[in-house]
Amino acid sequence: MTVAIYPGSFDPITNGHLDIVRRASTIFDKVVVGVYDIPQKSLLFTVNERVELAKKSVEDIKNVEVVAYSGITVEFARKIGAKVLVRGLRANSDFEREFEMALMNKKLAPDIELICFMANLKYQFLSSSLLKEIIKLGGNMDDMVPPHVCAALKKKLLY
Ligand code: ADP
Protein backbone atom coordinates (compact mmCIF):
# COMPACT_ATOMS: atom_id res chain seq x y z
CA MET A 1 0.00 0.00 0.00
CA THR A 2 1.50 3.35 -1.06
CA VAL A 3 0.75 6.27 1.20
CA ALA A 4 1.48 9.80 -0.02
CA ILE A 5 1.57 12.99 1.99
CA TYR A 6 0.58 16.33 0.48
CA PRO A 7 1.98 18.91 2.90
CA GLY A 8 1.30 22.65 2.96
CA SER A 9 -0.06 25.60 4.87
CA PHE A 10 -3.48 25.48 3.17
CA ASP A 11 -4.45 28.95 4.43
CA PRO A 12 -7.04 28.18 3.12
CA ILE A 13 -7.30 25.17 0.80
CA THR A 14 -8.17 26.23 -2.79
CA ASN A 15 -9.45 24.49 -5.91
CA GLY A 16 -5.82 24.45 -7.09
CA HIS A 17 -4.82 22.35 -4.07
CA LEU A 18 -7.93 20.19 -4.45
CA ASP A 19 -7.11 19.46 -8.08
CA ILE A 20 -3.76 18.05 -6.91
CA VAL A 21 -5.41 16.05 -4.10
CA ARG A 22 -7.94 14.47 -6.49
CA ARG A 23 -5.30 13.56 -9.05
CA ALA A 24 -2.99 12.11 -6.38
CA SER A 25 -5.89 10.11 -4.91
CA THR A 26 -6.28 8.23 -8.22
CA ILE A 27 -2.63 7.13 -8.15
CA PHE A 28 -1.86 6.37 -4.50
CA ASP A 29 -3.72 4.06 -2.14
CA LYS A 30 -3.98 6.77 0.48
CA VAL A 31 -3.29 10.52 0.43
CA VAL A 32 -2.77 12.39 3.67
CA VAL A 33 -3.20 16.15 3.40
CA GLY A 34 -0.73 17.40 6.02
CA VAL A 35 -1.61 20.84 7.35
CA TYR A 36 1.56 22.41 8.65
CA ASP A 37 0.66 24.05 11.97
CA ILE A 38 2.92 27.11 12.14
CA PRO A 39 4.61 27.91 8.82
CA GLN A 40 6.97 30.89 8.55
CA LYS A 41 4.28 33.10 7.09
CA SER A 42 1.45 35.14 8.45
CA LEU A 43 -1.77 33.17 8.61
CA LEU A 44 -5.45 34.06 8.38
CA PHE A 45 -6.83 30.79 9.75
CA THR A 46 -5.82 28.79 12.84
CA VAL A 47 -4.51 25.29 12.30
CA ASN A 48 -7.85 23.82 13.43
CA GLU A 49 -9.77 26.04 11.03
CA ARG A 50 -7.45 25.08 8.13
CA VAL A 51 -7.89 21.39 8.96
CA GLU A 52 -11.69 21.68 9.17
CA LEU A 53 -11.93 23.60 5.86
CA ALA A 54 -9.74 20.99 4.16
CA LYS A 55 -11.65 18.05 5.72
CA LYS A 56 -14.97 19.35 4.44
CA SER A 57 -13.44 19.86 0.97
CA VAL A 58 -12.31 16.24 0.62
CA GLU A 59 -15.15 14.47 2.42
CA ASP A 60 -16.31 12.85 -0.84
CA ILE A 61 -12.90 11.27 -1.57
CA LYS A 62 -12.62 7.94 0.22
CA ASN A 63 -8.84 7.53 0.38
CA VAL A 64 -7.96 11.06 1.54
CA GLU A 65 -7.34 12.09 5.13
CA VAL A 66 -6.52 15.50 6.60
CA VAL A 67 -4.24 15.90 9.62
CA ALA A 68 -2.32 18.72 11.27
CA TYR A 69 1.38 18.26 11.90
CA SER A 70 4.34 20.17 13.25
CA GLY A 71 8.08 19.87 12.80
CA ILE A 72 9.99 18.43 9.88
CA THR A 73 7.74 17.23 7.05
CA VAL A 74 9.76 14.13 6.12
CA GLU A 75 9.82 13.03 9.77
CA PHE A 76 6.04 13.29 9.88
CA ALA A 77 5.92 11.39 6.56
CA ARG A 78 7.96 8.55 8.10
CA LYS A 79 5.74 8.51 11.18
CA ILE A 80 2.62 7.91 9.10
CA GLY A 81 4.34 5.46 6.73
CA ALA A 82 4.27 7.78 3.69
CA LYS A 83 6.87 6.96 1.04
CA VAL A 84 5.85 9.76 -1.31
CA LEU A 85 5.73 13.52 -0.88
CA VAL A 86 3.31 15.25 -3.24
CA ARG A 87 3.64 18.90 -4.25
CA GLY A 88 2.03 21.08 -6.91
CA LEU A 89 4.04 23.14 -9.38
CA ARG A 90 2.74 26.33 -10.93
CA ALA A 91 4.62 27.81 -13.88
CA ASN A 92 7.31 30.31 -12.86
CA SER A 93 6.53 30.73 -9.19
CA ASP A 94 7.27 27.33 -7.62
CA PHE A 95 10.18 25.51 -9.23
CA GLU A 96 13.21 27.00 -7.49
CA ARG A 97 11.73 26.84 -4.01
CA GLU A 98 10.45 23.29 -4.55
CA PHE A 99 13.81 22.18 -5.96
CA GLU A 100 15.64 23.59 -2.94
CA MET A 101 13.24 21.90 -0.52
CA ALA A 102 13.38 18.63 -2.49
CA LEU A 103 17.19 18.49 -2.20
CA MET A 104 17.04 19.22 1.52
CA ASN A 105 14.34 16.60 2.05
CA LYS A 106 16.41 14.07 0.08
CA LYS A 107 19.35 14.72 2.40
CA LEU A 108 17.15 14.25 5.46
CA ALA A 109 15.17 11.28 4.13
CA PRO A 110 16.69 9.50 1.09
CA ASP A 111 13.94 6.86 1.33
CA ILE A 112 11.13 9.31 0.55
CA GLU A 113 10.40 10.28 -3.06
CA LEU A 114 9.00 13.59 -4.23
CA ILE A 115 6.33 13.59 -6.93
CA CYS A 116 5.28 16.95 -8.35
CA PHE A 117 2.03 17.46 -10.23
CA MET A 118 1.88 20.27 -12.74
CA ALA A 119 -0.83 22.73 -11.69
CA ASN A 120 -4.02 22.66 -13.73
CA LEU A 121 -4.07 25.44 -16.34
CA LYS A 122 -7.20 26.91 -14.69
CA TYR A 123 -5.39 27.38 -11.39
CA GLN A 124 -1.89 28.37 -12.52
CA PHE A 125 -2.28 31.88 -11.15
CA LEU A 126 -4.12 30.90 -7.99
CA SER A 127 -2.38 31.21 -4.62
CA SER A 128 -3.91 31.41 -1.15
CA SER A 129 -2.24 34.80 -0.62
CA LEU A 130 -3.57 36.38 -3.84
CA LEU A 131 -6.98 34.88 -3.13
CA LYS A 132 -7.10 36.58 0.30
CA GLU A 133 -5.98 39.90 -1.18
CA ILE A 134 -8.68 39.88 -3.87
CA ILE A 135 -11.47 38.86 -1.47
CA LYS A 136 -10.42 41.57 0.98
CA LEU A 137 -10.82 44.08 -1.85
CA GLY A 138 -14.28 42.77 -2.66
CA GLY A 139 -13.38 40.74 -5.76
CA ASN A 140 -15.28 37.62 -6.79
CA MET A 141 -13.30 34.39 -6.41
CA ASP A 142 -16.26 32.03 -6.06
CA ASP A 143 -14.98 29.60 -8.71
CA MET A 144 -11.56 29.29 -7.09
CA VAL A 145 -12.56 27.74 -3.75
CA PRO A 146 -15.35 25.44 -2.49
CA PRO A 147 -18.42 27.39 -1.24
CA HIS A 148 -17.72 26.75 2.47
CA VAL A 149 -14.15 28.08 2.06
CA CYS A 150 -15.48 31.16 0.25
CA ALA A 151 -17.92 31.79 3.12
CA ALA A 152 -15.15 31.39 5.73
CA LEU A 153 -12.90 33.82 3.82
CA LYS A 154 -15.63 36.43 3.53
CA LYS A 155 -16.48 36.08 7.21
CA LYS A 156 -12.85 36.68 8.23
CA LEU A 157 -11.99 39.36 5.69
CA LEU A 158 -15.15 41.33 5.13
CA TYR A 159 -17.44 41.20 8.13
P1 ADP B 1 3.37 25.93 1.35
O1 ADP B 1 3.34 26.95 2.44
O2 ADP B 1 3.94 24.62 1.74
O3 ADP B 1 3.89 26.42 0.01
P2 ADP B 1 0.73 26.03 0.21
O4 ADP B 1 -0.53 25.76 0.93
O5 ADP B 1 0.92 27.42 -0.30
O6 ADP B 1 1.83 25.58 1.20
O7 ADP B 1 0.89 25.01 -1.00
C1 ADP B 1 0.99 23.63 -0.81
C2 ADP B 1 1.38 22.98 -2.13
O8 ADP B 1 0.39 23.21 -3.10
C3 ADP B 1 2.68 23.51 -2.75
O9 ADP B 1 3.33 22.45 -3.40
C4 ADP B 1 2.19 24.53 -3.75
O10 ADP B 1 3.11 24.74 -4.78
C5 ADP B 1 0.94 23.83 -4.24
N1 ADP B 1 -0.04 24.77 -4.79
C6 ADP B 1 -0.42 25.96 -4.29
N2 ADP B 1 -1.35 26.55 -5.08
C7 ADP B 1 -1.54 25.71 -6.12
C8 ADP B 1 -2.36 25.75 -7.31
N3 ADP B 1 -3.12 26.80 -7.60
N4 ADP B 1 -2.31 24.70 -8.16
C9 ADP B 1 -1.51 23.65 -7.88
N5 ADP B 1 -0.71 23.54 -6.80
C10 ADP B 1 -0.72 24.56 -5.92
Across the major sheet, the strand order is: 3-2-1-4-5
Query: In percent terms, what proportion of residues is strand?
Result: 15-25%
Overall average pLDDT: 96
Number of helices: 6
> Helical residue percent?
25-40%
Give the CATH H-level superfamily.
HUPs
What is the CATH topology? Rossmann fold
The CATH architecture can be given as 3-Layer(aba) Sandwich
How far is the N terminus from the C terminus?
A: 45 Å
Please compute the radius of gyration using only Cα atoms: 15 Å
Q: What is the total tally of β strands?
A: 5
| SSE sequence, one letter per element | EHEHEHEHEHH
Q: How would you name the oligomeric state of the polypeptide chains in this document?
A: single chain
**Low-confidence parts, pLDDT < 50 over ≥5 residues?**
none
How many distinct domains?
Answer: 1
CATH class: Alpha Beta
**Biggest sheet features:** 5 strands, parallel
What binds here, in terms of ligands, is: adenosine-5'-diphosphate
Short account of what is shown:
With 159 residues, the chain is α/β, with parallel strands linked by helices.
Description:
The protein has helices spanning 15-25, 47-57, 73-79, 95-108, 128-136, 147-157; strands at 3-8, 30-36, 64-69, 84-89, 113-118. With 159 residues, it is α/β, with parallel strands linked by helices. A 5-stranded parallel β-sheet has the order 3-2-1-4-5, sandwiched between helices. The chain is globular and about 45 Å long. The longest helix has 14 residues, at 95-108. It contains 6 helices and 5 strands; from the N terminus they run βαβαβαβαβαα. 29% of the residues are buried. It has one domain (3-158): HUPs (Rossmann fold, 3-Layer(aba) Sandwich), CATH 3.40.50.620. Bound molecules: adenosine-5'-diphosphate (ADP). Residues 8-10, 14, 16-17, 20, 39, 87-88, 90, 94, 119, 123, 126-128 line the site of adenosine-5'-diphosphate (ADP).
